[in-house]
Request: fold
Amino acid sequence: MQGHKYKKFIPDLSPHSTRLLRKFFVEYQNDKENLIKTLRSQITLFKKLPIFESTKHFKKFNKESVAFQATSSLLADLLGGGWKITLGINDFQISKPEYEETFRGKSIDEVKKAMRDIQLKNRDKQLKSPEVQNFISRMQRPRVVGNEKKSILDLIDNGKELAEIFKDISELNEEKKLSFLKKFIKPEIVICYPDDPLFKEEEHFCPYTGLKLSDIWRYFRLTWSSELKSVPGKSFPMLIRNAARPNKPIIGIAMLRSAALSDEARDDLIGWTDEKKLRENIYNKKLDIKFVVKQLILSLNHGIDNIRRDDFNFLNSNLIKNPNDEIIKKLNKIYEEEYEKRKEDLENEKKQAPRTDQYEEPDWEGESELPLFRKKRALFLARLLEVRKYFNESNIEKEPAKGYAKLVHPSNKKGGEMIARALREIKTKALAENIMDVSVCGSVAPYNEILGGKLVASLMASEEVRNLFKSRYASKKYLKPSIIASSKKGEAFYRDANLMCLTTTSLYGVASSQYNKIKFLKKDFSNLNQDLIWQEVKKNKKISHKTKGQGVYHFTDETTKLLDILFYKIFGYKQVNHKFGEGTSPKLRKTRISIERLLNRNKAPKEKRHLYALTDDFFAHNIQRKNYVLFLTNDILNKLMSQTKHYNSVDPSKANDITSAWISRWLLKRIARPETLEKLNKLGPDSVKVLLNYEIQDNSNNLFNFKIVNVKKN
Reply:
């Protein structure tokens, strides 16, 4: 155990179940592969009911059996993810993977392969499931469209044809090559709209194949090396098609989704990580103190004004302007009371949150009165009125510099926190309206061989993407109120949509990624309206600011489902759900609570509790990724801090102009390589079929009891 930080893990199981688990570790102490296989063989629950069944259908199963199977599945996931697990005297000794130690002495290629293998395990398992294979088969099955039969395969370009075309133009001079390639590759960005009556039926379907655009997106996402998982919050999937080729084949896919509220790498680069960073930028003259204070007060006023408070009858306009400790205490008490009511609602399985599948507009006033949102209103109002109380006491509005200094003085224990709260309101607004995360971005065969991923990544900065985003979320055509904000306000609340900043992470934390060296400067490409740079975030010139390698990435669906069932068996209700307003990252929260119950650290002696595993220890997946940020405007900090729209300050380039820059920078060199042309010859519909297609010999509801044979083609 030397060199590893081992912690005790005593799962809350019966002595019999514990002995059985320990027996497996003794029997296969030098055979990790068979140990994992044996642990997974203990998962029998889903042989009786499919994994996708509602949790309540598992009521009849014994709690101890569920806990045993959940522990077996969890240990198998950990072992597969690089954890070290050994037996102690009366416990399991676990050691989470240490990134640097795991890959010490290995080449970059070896590290990438190891990280890729971790991702492929879950991807392949998903790909081989009957549900996914049936979907793939349906997409590949020809259907009559007009006078022709078409399938998803007609949207995959022919690599051999591309190679021949590139070879034919090889003798042309660079100017003529560039002219030809501009006509040959014309990206068209298409939104995959959700199922909603707001959108016309033809907006959901591909005119060439008759397939749903969202299904096309899903099909190509399955070709990725990582598992396809649903994501909470706002999502904006896109297809990038080549309008210059027959059927407009798919170049690549992308998806924007809601950015994380807390992202240290992004916030450091912007310059508003916390109050200290904000103050530093004031001292360095990057921000004007008067401007900062004005925006903090505006955000505070905006936050207070958009919370319904007429049912808090002890409040009046004077107390809102001049709050005191008494009313803040009353609001906190209401929060506690409504929190208990919400727990009762969950125990009784009442549906107390707005349903996202309802197309008619909810009764926002009624929604605001539900315990879920009444507690939220009380808490938010208490926190914001406390900020106003401190701001009033410092006289910061009339004396910005002096007032700010009073608040951050060491003698003022909570002043800095109050500024941070007001700053958080600015961030929340910007994250809802101006900042998105590029969660999916890449090209598909055969365009992946000609660095199509760099083209797709570059197109995220295009005028077309920005306008489509604005049209989707802020135009009258598709305008929908914000669910959480409307439920807090008690009436419809609409947000703006003005993209100014994009974030993303690399697939791996080593070597180059597709975002590396994407730097198109206006001085070098005159057609561009502004510089286009995907910046890698670094702590200093040499060290990358990587992600922490924390999350549920390494947990299989079986594990998360079993932990969910276990929680349900313990409490009799689902404390965590996917309802809007309940909280972010429901899967993470659900898994965390369940593991906490399984750990049962409270049984350990207090003086030795530090030796026992913490819940967070189980969330270290060892995949540290590089962070990248793309600014769509200059002077980003001032513009995000400001409470105005700034549409005119953002002047993105058109997709064709960005494509032209990509052709000059990347494509011309790429197609000059004989090895590229050789690889292109092998890419197309058939290569994708080989990657995705499996034969299911037993297509029953049992997700774990069938044989799979990969379909190999010559």
User: Anything to note?
Assistant: The longest strand covers residues 250-258. Confidence is low (pLDDT under 50) at residues 350-359, 576-584, 697-714.
